[in-house]
Structures are given as structure tokens and as C-alpha cells.
DNA sequence: CCTCCACCGGAAAGTCCGGTCG
DNA sequence: CGACCGGACTTTCCGGTGGAGG
């Protein structure tokens, strides 16, 4: 078995490579070309050329569903902007915040202020008269705001702040920070700030204070979803850089694009699918990536997504799901809400957990149905009442492994059910 | 045609919890 | 620090219902 030393690596190296550089196939990669986004790129560039002239750029709202290239486009333009500003020795700073991660007024102001402090520290000699770093918690909010103002005004510059997933702020009720930012320029003497809001949700403006909308939404740029042909162009471009020459069949890209187009024109999904197909092909040392690999990649992604969803379920929902599993393993007969509740409640008692109400469990069953983990439909058994008929919609083994971590799975037969259902 | 089972599912009130404000 | 707030999760309450059996 053992070959001469290093043999195993040499062998792998000599195999035909599927990938040239898989970084190009990751959604996080920021390309230089944005197929079918000329209009958006041009409009944004026209707005963001302002700081190069020392002017304040208009505030912009950018809308578009996930995977329409909003974030990548903005990040790319911001990098370019910094670049050119450097060449022209203009004082232009950019800051990017994701409101999904940084989601409170305090944290936004603190993060922003620390970022600006950091760039200053890198550029000036005497750091001693800068305000100190804002801790992640503890200060009064207006003190953080004051620090931010001091740092911003430390020298003359133009700064563009990007707030990605800005709609999260509205749904978390922290949109007042937007009001603060929208009028920050009146508190500043040297620096001018422009704000970019990126939103996945087209309607989020309607839940926003009109004052914020009028000042932050000076310009609006919409990123529509890609259709299948456009996705194909994107995949084509990426795969040329990411995959080795000739390993991709034309129909493969076609299929990936079609899959993703059906699912809301999400370029991220399309890329994930293509890359996963490549990884499967690589794993089995195939010479080419085929449509079969795509199909399997699609299944794998779906499988992983489901497993992730089940794992992140609240414990109570897991128990409900587990009850369905146990019932189904035991008897393939119709499973009704009552059956589930019975098993569920004895599982709860078994683990010493609170037992939720029937009403709640009924709701949880509906939620699991929405997720697609189970199928539930209401049926009437006439004389014998009305109930949801439930069946598992995923591999039972998958449920077991996803649920097992925190729940000790016991055999249904050894559970002390309150009453044994009709026998034979 | 009426009954009545075994639930469904909307509405509203209650509980918890993390975060914010004074 | 305690009062207060809003959101997520639950419970309580309850009117509603398709159809087998009478």
C-alpha cells in the first residue's frame, strides 16, 4: 500500500485539476465586471465621483433581492474610489457595515467611530490627542456619538458609509440611528458624510420615518433579479477564471442558471451550485463536470440546508419533529395531531421539559410544514373528527442525526403513553 | 338533514428577556 | 441602577368545520 514518500500528494497533483482558482466561484469574490449591471454601475459611479471633487455625494438607497449583485457592486466601486482618491491624494474614506451583524444604535456608532479611529491611527504620528477607543458596551450613546463627531472632524475629508441590509434596522426598531446619520452633516465642520443604504426589501421605505426617507433616499438605484440568460453570462465569466479549461460542459452552466433563475434569479445560489458541482466532480476525480454533478450538487445543497434548518430549530419544535419520526418509524399509518401530542408530551415529561399546549403544538406542526420538513394537510375523518395528517418529508436518518445532539432518543415502545391507542 | 367528533386556527392576553432610557 | 419597551414565544378562549353515522 505504502508508496515511496510523498507519493500520495504527487498522485493528487498529477490528477487533472477541475479548479483553476475556486475563489472566483465564491459569492464573496468581488469581480471587476458586472454583466448586465452597466446601468446601475454607471449611475452609482456618477454619484460617487463627487468626493473626488471634494463634494458631498448624494445619499443613496439601493434595492434588490439577495444575489442581485448589490453588495459586490458597491464594494467594488468603493475600492476603486479609494484607489483613485489615493492617486489624486484626495481625503476620501469609505466604511462598510452590515446591519445584520451590527444591529443596534450603539454598536453602529461605536463600530463606525472605531473604524475611523483606526484609519487615523495609521496615518498620523501623534495618537495621544485622539479620543480613546469606544468599548463594545458601557458608554452612554450620546458620548459615542460625540466621539464619532470628534473623530470625523479630526481632519477635512469626505466619507461614505455603507449600511448593508439596512432593512434589518427597521425590523429591529433601531432605525432612529438612520435619522441621526442622515443629519450628521449639520454637526460636522470639516468632514462631509454620504450614506449608502442597501436593502433586500423593496418595501422597507414604507415603514420608515418620512424624514429619513427624504434625506437618505436622495437617489434610488434598483437591482432587478437576473433572468436565466443573464445568470448564464455571469457563470460563464466566473467559470472561465475559476475552472480549468475545458472541464465545464456548456449544458452545465445552462442547467445551473436555469435552477437559480427558477429560484428568484439569485446569482449567489447559481454560483454555489456550480462550485458544488465542481467539488463533487473533483472528489470523484472526474475529468469533467457534468449535468449529473449539478443535479447531485443541487440535492446536496438542499440536504445541507434542511439539516441546518432542523439543527437550528427550537428544542420544542425538535421534540415535535422527533415525535413524528418515532410514530412514522413504528407504524406507517395516518399520524394525526392527537397522536403527535401524546408522544410529544411524554417525551417532554421524560426530559423534564415544560409541556406546551395543544394549540401551540398544532402551531409548531404547521411551522414544520411551512419549512418543508414534514407534510401536513387537514383532513376530515367524518365521525372521527378533523385533524392534520402528517408525514415526514425528509430522510429519517437525517432527522435523527440533526436532533440527536440535545435529545436522547428513546424507543417509542418504552414511552409511558397515557393511553394505548386502539390495538389491532 | 342533522349531529357531533377531534381537531383547526384567529384574537387577545400573558410571560420572558434583552436592550434602552433617565 | 430600576423603570420601561418591544418583540418572540405561549397560553387562554373560543367560534368554526367536513363528513361518517344516524
UniProtKB/TrEMBL annotation:
Q: Where is the AAA+ ATPase domain?
A: 56-227
Any single GO molecular-function term of the entry would be: ATP binding
A Pfam family per the record: AAA_16
What keywords sit in the KW lines? Answer: ATP-binding, Cell cycle, Cell division, DNA replication, Nucleotide-binding
Q: Which CDD domains match?
A: AAA, Cdc6_C
Cited SUPFAM superfamilies: P-loop containing nucleoside triphosphate hydrolases (SSF52540), Winged helix' DNA-binding domain (SSF46785)
**InterPro entries associated with the record:** AAA+_ATPase, AAA_16, Cdc6_C, Cdc6_lid, ORC1/CDC6, Orc1/Cdc6_arc, P-loop_NTPase, WH-like_DNA-bd_sf
Binding positions (ATP): 68-72, 226, 238
Entry-linked SMART domains:
AAA (SM00382), Cdc6_C (SM01074)
Name the Gene Ontology biological process terms. cell division; DNA replication
The answer to whether keyword Transcription applies is: no
Annotated ranges, domain Cdc6 C-terminal: 321-403
- What family is reported? Belongs to the CDC6/cdc18 family.
Function of the molecule? Involved in regulation of DNA replication.
Q: Tell me what this protein is called.
A: ORC1-type DNA replication protein
Amino acid at each position: 500500500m505504502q508508496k515511496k514518500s510523498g507519493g500520495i500528494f504527487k498522485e493528487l497533483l498529477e490528477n487533472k485539476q477541475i479548479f483553476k482558482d475556486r475563489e472566483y466561484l465564491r459569492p464573496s469574490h468581488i469581480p471587476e465586471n458586472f454583466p448586465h449591471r452597466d446601468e446601475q454601475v454607471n449611475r452609482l459611479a456618477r454619484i460617487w465621483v463627487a468626493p473626488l471633487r471634494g463634494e458631498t455625494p448624494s445619499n443613496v438607497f439601493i434595492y434588490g433581492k439577495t444575489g442581485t449583485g448589490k453588495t459586490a457592486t458597491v464594494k467594488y466601486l468603493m475600492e476603486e474610489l479609494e484607489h483613485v482618491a489615493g492617486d489624486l491624494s484626495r481625503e476620501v474614506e469609505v466604511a462598510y457595515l452590515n446591519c445584520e451583524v451590527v444591529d443596534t444604535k450603539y454598536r453602529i456608532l461605536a463600530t463606525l467611530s472605531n473604524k475611523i479611529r483606526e484609519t487615523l491611527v495609521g496615518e498620523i504620528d501623534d495618537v495621544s490627542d485622539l479620543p480613546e477607543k469606544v468599548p463594545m458596551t458601557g458608554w452612554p450613546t450620546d458620548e459615542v456619538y460625540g466621539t464619532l463627531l470628534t473623530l470625523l472632524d479630526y481632519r477635512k475629508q469626505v466619507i461614505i458609509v455603507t449600511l448593508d441590509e439596512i432593512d434589518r434596522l427597521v425590523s429591529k426598531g433601531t432605525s432612529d440611528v438612520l435619522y441621526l446619520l442622515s443629519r450628521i452633516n449639520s454637526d460636522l465642520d470639516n468632514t462631509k458624510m454620504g450614506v449608502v443604504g442597501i436593502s433586500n426589501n423593496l418595501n422597507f421605505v414604507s415603514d420608515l420615518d418620512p424624514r429619513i426617507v427624504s434625506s437618505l433616499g436622495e437617489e434610488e438605484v434598483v437591482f432587478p433579479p437576473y433572468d436565466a440568460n443573464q445568470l448564464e453570462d455571469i457563470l460563464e465569466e466566473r467559470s472561465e477564471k475559476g475552472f480549468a479549461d475545458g472541464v465545464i460542459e456548456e449544458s452545465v452552466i445552462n442547467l445551473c442558471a436555469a435552477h437559480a433563475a427558477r429560484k428568484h434569479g439569485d446569482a449567489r445560489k447559481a454560483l454555489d451550485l456550480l462550485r458544488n458541482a465542481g467539488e463533487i466532480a473533483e472528489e470523484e476525480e472526474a475529468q469533467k463536470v457534468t449535468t449529473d454533478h449539478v443535479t447531485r450538487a443541487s440535492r446536496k445543497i438542499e440536504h445541507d440546508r434542511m439539516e441546518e434548518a432542523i439543527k437550528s430549530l427550537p428544542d420544542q419544535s425538535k421534540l415535535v419533529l422527533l415525535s413524528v419520526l418515532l410514530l412514522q418509524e413504528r407504524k406507517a399509518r395516518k399520524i394525526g395531531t392527537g397522536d403527535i401530542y401524546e408522544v410529544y408530551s411524554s417525551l417532554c415529561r421524560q426530559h423534564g421539559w415544560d409541556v406546551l399546549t395543544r394549540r401551540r403544538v398544532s402551531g409548531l406542526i404547521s411551522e414544520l410544514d411551512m419549512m418543508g420538513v414534514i407534510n401536513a394537510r387537514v383532513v376530515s375523518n367524518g365521525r372521527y373528527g378533523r385533524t392534520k395528517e402528517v408525514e415526514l418529508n425528509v430522510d429519517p436518518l437525517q432527522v435523527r442525526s440533526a436532533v440527536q445532539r440535545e435529545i436522547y432518543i428513546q424507543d417509542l415502545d418504552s414511552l409511558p403513553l397515557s393511553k394505548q391507542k386502539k390495538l389491532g
